[in-house]
Amino acid sequence: MWREFRLIAGKDLRIEARSRVVTNQILPFALLILVLFAFAIDPDRGLLARVTGGLFWIAVLLATVLAVQRSFGLEAADGNRDGLRLAGLEPGAVFLGKAAAIFVQLMALEAVLLLGVAVLYTADLGEPLLLLTTSVAATAGLATAGSLYGVLAAGLRVRETLLPLLLLPVVAPVLIGATQGFESALARTPGEGWPWTGLLVVFAAIYTVFGILAFGPLLEEA
């Protein structure tokens, strides 16, 4: 299973390294969201500082939808999904591999967005340990939930519009928990942020286990 996990994750990451869709399309889209928010709220810098965490994670959440669509769109072309099913790979390994590839891409995107937040919003990135832990836990939740609902919508003709409707309500706890964790880190009150990070870890663990068990049947249905 570990070998198959590495094969799937490596495949998706190599495709992204060659196509550079995340760096050339998804990252500029997320940065543009931050810029537009900065222009919209610029007259009140105090308000912008207070909502920095929420704006950051809204940008990440919208980028996640695009990354998941891209990940499972790769399998829709040229019968790749049928080849994946017939290859005899462990479904749980396929799920973990695709989730890991999305996780790596999102973490790289978040690193750039944090720099954008520091520049555009003049945010003080205090409590780096809480920021990093919150990012890792929240991104794991987004990647696992996104992979599960991505395969659910993959076989439908309206997957481009259906995936956001399926995914966004489900990951609302991630948006809330990550926003609270970031706001606590930026305000240098880490004691208030760690319980939210624990919630994010529980969410990611639940979807990891559920995805390993359910990915195979969902892939067959797709």
Could you write a compact summary of the structure shown?
With 222 residues, the protein is mainly α.
Outline the secondary-structure elements:
Layout: H1 2-19, H2 21-41, H3 45-50, H4 52-76, H5 80-86, H6 91-120, H7 128-154, H8 159-170, H9 172-186, H10 190-221
Helix pairs in contact: 1-6, 2-4, 2-6, 4-6, 4-7, 4-9, 6-7, 6-10, 7-8, 7-9, 7-10, 9-10
What distinguishing features does this structure have?
87% helix, mainly alpha, 222 residues
Description:
The chain is mostly helical and 222 residues long. It has one domain. 87% of the residues lie in helices and 0% in strands. It has ten helices and no strands. The longest helix is centred in the last third of the chain and has 32 residues, at 190-221. The model has no long low-confidence stretch (mean pLDDT 87).
Task: Name the shape in a single word.
Answer: globular
Span of the ends, CA to CA: 22 Å
Main sheet summary: none
Strand content bin: under 5%
Beta strand count: 0
**How much helix is in the residues?**
over 70%
Tally of helical runs: 10
Order of helices and strands: HHHHHHHHHH
Chain-averaged pLDDT: 87
Helix- and strand-based class? Answer: mainly alpha
Q: If you compute it from the alpha carbons, what radius of gyration comes out, rounded to the nearest whole angstrom?
A: 18 Å
Number of domain units: 1
**Uncertain regions: pLDDT < 50 for 5+ in a row?**
none
